[in-house]
Amino acid sequence: MDRSPGKDPGRERRQRQAFLKDLKDFHAAKGHPISRFPYVGGRELDLHHLYNKVTSLGGFQKVSEKERWGELTEHFNFPRGCTHAPYALKQLYYR
Questions:
Q1: Which site in 34, 51, 57, 93 is 20 to 30 Å from 22, CA atoms measured?
Q2: C-alpha neighbours within 13 Å on the C-beta side of residue 95
Q3: Mind listing the pLDDT tens digit for each residue in 28-64?
Q4: Rounded to whole angstroms, what are the CA distances from 19 to 15, 37, 47, 48, 80?
Q5: Alpha-helix residue ranges (DSSP H) falling in 1-94
Q6: Which residues, 6 or more positions from 29, have their beta carbon under 8 angstroms from its beta carbon?
Q7: pLDDT score of 1
Q8: CA-CA distance, 81 to 20, in Å (whole number)?
């Protein structure tokens, strides 16, 4: 999460909570409720952060076309041995 000066942590927390609520509601409406959030490399994946990073790079198709999933892993501090992280991010974002 970006902790730059001028950022309002309360606002960011509310945005994250609203995003996760919308995501849960969307999946529930489609008949696939989210029972727990995914883990990658032994850590819960911040889906809001993933969404923001992917959209800032132009969206799923652009990130996939330019093969930037590996680059995205740098923003999540996965353990060094987590070699499947780029694939996991792509699959989880797609789902």
A1: 57
A2: 12
A3: 999 999 989 999 988 899 999 999 999 999 999 999 9
A4: 6, 13, 9, 7, 29
A5: 9-29, 47-56, 60-65, 69-72, 85-94
A6: none
A7: 47
A8: 28
